[in-house]
Every structure is written in C-alpha cells, then in structure tokens.
From TrEMBL:
Its main location: cytoplasm. NADPH binds at residue 45. Its EC number is 1.14.13.-. Monomer. Belongs to the aromatic-ring hydroxylase family. TetX subfamily. This is Flavin-dependent monooxygenase. One of its GO terms (cellular component) is cytoplasm. GO terms for molecular function: FAD binding; monooxygenase activity. It catalyses: a tetracycline + NADPH + O2 + H(+) = an 11a-hydroxytetracycline + NADP(+) + H2O. Gene3D superfamilies: FAD/NAD(P)-binding domain. It is found in: Cytoplasm.
Amino acid sequence: MSTQRRQRRIAIVGAGPGGLTLARVLHVHGIPSTVYELDTSATARDQGGTLDLDEESGQRALLHAGLLEEFRPLSRPEGGELRLLGKDADVGFHIPPPQDGDGNHRPEIDRRVLKELLLGSLPEGTVRWGQKVKAVAIGAAGRPTLTLADGTTVAADVLVGADGAWSRVRPLLSDADPVYTGVSFVDGLLNDVDTRHPAVAELVGRGSMFALADEKGLFAQRNGGGRIRVYIAVKTPEEWSRSALNDPADPAATRKRLLDLFPDWDEGLRALIADSDGPLVHRPIHALPTGHRWDRVPGVTLLGDAAHLMSPFAGAGANLAMLDGAELALALAAHDDPETALNAYETAMFPRAEAAATQSAAHLVDFFQPDALRILRDAFTTMTAGGADR
Ligand SMILES: Cc1cc2nc3c(=O)[nH]c(=O)nc-3n(C[C@H](O)[C@H](O)[C@H](O)COP(=O)(O)OP(=O)(O)OC[C@H]3O[C@@H](n4cnc5c(N)ncnc54)[C@H](O)[C@@H]3O)c2cc1C
C-alpha cells in the first residue's frame, strides 16, 4: 500500500450501512477515513426493521469487511419463513422456516445489530456523531469541502455522499431529486409479541408475512427481541398521505384512519394496526429516476440511496449500499489516482443499480395489482422451484 493512498483525506457523509461498510473496508486496507453523521449517537433513533443479506451483495460486502463469520451467529436464518395471505388471512403460499443445513441464502439481521457489528469494527473516533453536513462545495484548490452545522469547514481529497435519500452531497454531481412513487407506508411496532400478542405472532410466523388485497398491503416481519414490525402500505396521493397519515401528535386518529382503510379485512390482520405499541411512523416512498448517473466531478462520488434510491420492493437497497461501500473501498485501495478509483467504482455500480431499480419499480406495480396475491405467489413459486408448501 503506497503512502499516497494512506494519506488521502477521505470524508464520508452518513453512517448508514453503506458509509460504515466503506469505512470498514478502507480500514481493513490500512486507509483511514472520517464519517460525519447527523445522528448524535448509534442509538439516537430506532434503526428500523430487519434486513435479509444476499450472498452476492450484503454478504459479499461483509466478506470484504472481514465480518462474515461474526455476522453468521448474529443472523436469524429462520427469518426466511414467508407467508402470503389474502385479506381473509387464508395462507395462499408458504415457505417454511429453513432448517439447519437448508442453506438459506438470505439470512435476516436486525438493522441495529448490523450497525453495531460495523461500528464495533472501526477504530474509535472514525464516526463523528452529531455532525450534520449543511453544505458541500468544490473549494478554490479544486478540492471538495464540506461545511458542518457548527460552521466548521473540512477539505477532503475524496468526498463520498453516503447520506441517503435526501443527500446533501448529490447536488455536486446531479440535478436529480427523488420522486414520490405513489405509495406510502406507515410503520408500526408490536413488542413482546409471544406474550402480549400471541395471535399476531402465530399469524406472522418467524419471518415475513405479506397480506395483499384491494391494491393495499399489510407487510409484517419478525424482528429480534420478540418484536413484530408492520408496514401498512397504501397507494395514495402524497398530499392525502401527508395530511391523513402523518399526525404524530394524535396516533389514535392515525390508527383509526388506517383501520378505516382496511374495513373488511380479517380482524387478526387488522390487529397489526389496532394493537401496535410504538409510534406510527409515516414513510412516503420515493425513488430516484431509474438509471440515475452523473459525469465525474473530481474527488466526489455517491453510494447507496444517495446514488440510487429505489422503492423497497426488491429488498435490495441496504444490500446494494453495502456492496457499493465495499467495492468503492477496494477501488481506492487499488489505485493511487483517486479518479481512476472512482471511475472504476462507478463503471460497475451504475448498471448494477439500474438493474435493481428496474426490478424494484416492476415489483412495486405487482404488489398493488388487483390480483397481487396470484402474481406474487407465481413469482415466489418460480423462485423457489417447488420447495414450498402451497
Ligand atoms: C420500509 C423500508 C424497508 C426496507 N427494507 C429493505 C430490505 O429488506 N432490504 C434492503 O436491502 N433494503 C431495504 N430498504 C432500503 C434500505 O433501508 C436503504 O436502501 C439503506 O438503508 C440505504 O443505506 P445507505 O447507507 O445508502 O443510507 P441510509 O441508511 O439512509 O443512511 C444514511 C445516513 O446518512 C445520515 N445523514 C443524512 N443526511 C446527513 C447529513 N446532511 N449530514 C450527516 N449525516 C447525514 C443519516 O442520518 C443516515 O445515518 C428498505 C427501505 C424502506 C424505506
């Protein structure tokens, strides 16, 4: 490793799965970096639900990070169970929980646990918490600079926007903005389900459950710690979603409005809304244009959602963010000239992201078709090629 590569100043904005994987793989190759993160700590907010890490992306990134073996005992292979239900709660398709040796290629891990794994593998002080990046620019010497909320300015040799959907770094490279997909989620959480909500626990099983009908969905997933997270998904104009489903001051009113959207659904399914314990979090789903890319700006690039935000219907966003982070680090470790590294990274990342975004946009349409249950059942049947109960 040349001194030149070790002495480069690498600034990463955002300590999500992508930014942390980048910092970790750089560290494995002896290259220091600094991650600027607006959250005040790793536990400042709920990190969200569970992720299934794909062998070809999320797990490959962990391999490059030297963390794959540590990941395995933290993961939940049984989370591979899948149930597809209609609004009457009849099971239309079922993949049972993988047994030992079944070879589940996408084991689940809670986002919080994944974040702890990545953070614990970084040298102290790599992540600067509570450092919101307010602005970015190309400085007089042609170096990217970022301005923090306290007014401090930092110059970097390489600036990476790993700062998610509403990236502050992206405008240096591209005019694209995320566009509302026509679908809104509201997230709910049920705690201690085996004791407090046994019927819901039974309905959802050990992994994921998708109930689909009437161009709506209730998507539930088992999280660690005896919790079930539910995404209540509706096709709706953004204005209505923002006014009707986003009332943190009055969760009871939001809950009632949501229940009114599912009037004739089985009571067991409606319990996912009625019995949720945590706050109901409004989450309109946005996406960047499929095939989003940019011309090279010296020293600056993007990864993960900042580069290719897509709807969650392909289950790929965090996996891709991690692979982006790993591959960018490998490119920076392989080349003295940062431009050669950034170019190599983007050349591989753009088509990969475009393929996943195309798939995710198609899945979004499928999930809200009048016969969504049949479409998904056929898709999963093809994928599993007869290995599930039907
Ligand atoms: C409901 C839902 C379900 C999903 N399910 C899955 C799934 O099952 N599998 C999957 O692979 N993907 C899933 N995704 C997608 C996944 O969550 C994202 O693709 C992934 O988190 C992107 O990682 P990232 O590191 O690029 O960005 P993020 O995770 O968004 O991290 C960005 C970080 O940057 C920080 N930040 C933002 N702005 C600034 C600033 N100005 N200054 C400093 N810090 C800043 C943020 O605080 C955050 O920590 C889902 C998404 C949603 C909405």
